[in-house]
Amino acid sequence: MILKLIIFAIVGLLIYKFFGGKFPKMGRTADEKQLEDNTLVECAKCSTYVTVKESMLMNGEYYCSSKCREK
Ligand SMILES: [Zn+2]
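Above: query sequence and zinc ion SMILES. Below: predicted holo structure tokens.
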């Protein structure tokens, strides 16, 4: 019983090391986020294009400034 746990621990460690100490899914998420930050989106109010990072998201729509966001 305890031997099984040790084998599981070793296998788990090997899988962890195989992925270079971090899971590839996490790395990909960071890349996607960076790409998303630089993506241009259109302001729902005045149609100005701003990056996602600069824009303001409200109710699933992007706005270029708080002025546009407030109607
Ligand atoms: Zn705007």
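The two ends are 65 Å apart (CA to CA).
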